[in-house]
User: Which sequence fits this backbone?
């Protein structure tokens, strides 16, 4: 599914009556169907807010978001969401967690079970379908979360720093895994990260957001084919460009704000 | 000498009973004021076989009391659980209702007895009402605190999975708050069982009830029967709590990370 974001703004009311905090300022992006886009930016810049707006979990102050030409208003069943903290339901086992979106559509028990077990198999979770989230490692929990976001045939996968809580080895295995999932399902992926390597390694395009209020500061096409070699010169060129952008934003942030 | 751990907790009880028996045998305390333990066991057997008043056997007293507590507790759960869920979700309603709850809560159930008799007459309803008052507040307050502390990310996760408001309540808030609800039920049932004797002060039509039996024993000046009744209330209360504790532990066990 393609995604069209036009002049998107979002402000939050501030505690003091003076007014509002502007988080997103005039963001416009066109994202092609089936593409993989990384979104990177300084911490606290509003990346998560952008994703929540696309997911329909929050409403924009102004501007619009269209999914395949249809304006979004509220949560769409065509989007799946993966949270950094996994957000699995601790009282449900793996199979029931994965099948949760189907339960919300009143699918029959057999249907839910069959579909969930199919994902359990494909996501390397066999033997753990009856386990509870607390019994799984972080990487496995995140695989359950990705399976849950895709089971209802999601065509847009929104990921909010999905691998941020994982150790670096698990992290790179999960990146590989995510690329395989993307290539199989051909869904559109928007991935938020604060990790430059991850953004460049995964994305066909890296969108760089500025300090708050966030605007699109840079939009970099990563033209190297998959699988990518993180040790290549080409990879480093892209890394340097993103790094420079972030350094610049960081410096601007220090200038604007008193040190804390 | 090594005592197996499971018997350890009974050691202190045995010691106290032995001491009590000895003091009575030595004539240190009057058996009219405090009958020795073996008299209480004897009294219990008499109550079981002959009954008090004659023909009103002990197990029927116990069952009738349990029925009253069950009715009062069930009513408190039926009213307190939904109210707690709603109040936990809406800060506005919580602010509106909390003063009312906090004003009513410190009023001892005993103080309600005249009104209970006026409203419901003598019988099951007024006794159940008194027990209801004992159970209700802990259930409401613990449910509220359970819901308030639910991780908001779980609600977001359910929403992106397509859950509507009703299902957020039944599939997320209720199970997430369940351990806390169990605590409320445990405290509530404990207080409910404790108010039993007071509840049976409202009078019983059937001529059965542990509290009623104790009062009959008082009227005929039989402290051994009184103590037998008290002991049984203690033992039954203990097992009711064990029952709910088991239920709670089973739920919490699945949510606690196991060490790998």
Assistant:
């Amino acid at each position: 599914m393609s995604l069209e974001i036009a002049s998107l703004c979002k402000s939050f009311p501030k505690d003091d009556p003076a007014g509002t905090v502007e988080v997103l300022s005039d963001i416009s992006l066109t994202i092609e169907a089936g593409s993989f886009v990384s979104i990177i930016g300084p911490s606290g810049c509003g990346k998560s807010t952008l994703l929540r707006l696309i997911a329909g979990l929050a409403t924009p102050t102004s501007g619009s978001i269209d999914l395949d030409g249809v304006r979004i208003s509220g949560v769409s069943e065509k989007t799946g969401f993966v949270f950094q903290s996994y957000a699995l339901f601790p009282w449900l086992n793996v199979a029931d967690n994965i099948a949760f979106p189907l339960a919300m559509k009143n699918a029959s028990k057999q249907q839910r079970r069959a579909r969930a077990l199919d994902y359990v198999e494909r996501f390397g979770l066999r033997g753990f379908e009856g386990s509870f989230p607390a019994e799984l490692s972080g990487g496995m929990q995140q695989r359950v979360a990705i399976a849950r976001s895709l089971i209802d045939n999601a065509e847009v996968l929104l990921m909010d720093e999905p691998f941020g809580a994982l150790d670096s080895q698990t992290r790179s295995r999960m990146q590989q895994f995510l690329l395989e999932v993307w290539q199989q399902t051909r869904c559109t992926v928007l991935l938020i990260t604060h990790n430059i390597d991850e953004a460049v390694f995964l994305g066909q395009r890296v969108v760089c957001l500025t300090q708050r209020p966030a605007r699109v500061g840079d939009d970099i096409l990563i033209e190297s084919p998959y699988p990518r070699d993180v040790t290549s010169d080409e990879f480093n060129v892209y890394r340097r460009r993103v790094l420079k952008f972030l350094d610049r934003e960081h410096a601007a942030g220090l200038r604007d704000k008193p040190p804390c | 000498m090594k005592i197996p751990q499971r018997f350890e907790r009974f050691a202190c009880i045995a010691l106290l009973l032995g001491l009590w028996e000895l003091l009575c045998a030595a004539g240190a305390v009057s058996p009219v004021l405090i009958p020795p333990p073996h008299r209480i066991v004897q009294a219990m057997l008499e109550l079981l076989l002959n009954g008090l008043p004659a023909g009103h056997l002990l197990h029927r007293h116990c069952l009738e009391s349990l029925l009253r507590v069950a009715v009062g507790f069930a009513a408190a759960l039926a009213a307190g659980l939904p109210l707690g869920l709603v109040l936990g979700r809406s800060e506005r309603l919580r602010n509106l209702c909390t003063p009312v709850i906090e004003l009513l809560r410190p009023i001892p159930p005993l103080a309600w007895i005249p009104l209970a008799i006026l409203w419901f007459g003598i019988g099951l309803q007024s006794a159940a009402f008194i027990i209801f008052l004992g159970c209700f507040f802990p259930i409401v307050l613990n449910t509220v605190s359970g819901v308030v502390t639910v991780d908001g990310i779980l609600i977001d996760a359910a929403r992106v999975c397509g859950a509507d408001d009703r299902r957020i309540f039944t599939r997320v808030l209720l199970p997430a708050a369940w351990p806390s609800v169990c605590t409320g039920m445990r405290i509530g049932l404990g207080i409910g069982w404790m108010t039993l004797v007071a509840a049976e002060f409202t009078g019983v039509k059937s001529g059965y009830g542990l509290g009623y039996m104790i009062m009959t024993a008082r009227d005929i000046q039989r402290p051994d029967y009184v103590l037998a009744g008290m002991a049984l209330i203690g033992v039954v209360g203990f097992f009711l709590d064990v029952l709910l504790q088991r239920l709670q532990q089973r739920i919490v066990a699945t949510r606690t990370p196991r060490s790998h």
Notes: The helical segments of chain A are 47-55, 94-98, 100-104, 109-122, 138-150, 168-185, 196-202, 233-256. Residues 233-256 of chain A form the longest helix (24 residues). Chain A touches chain B through 28 residues (CB under 8 Å).
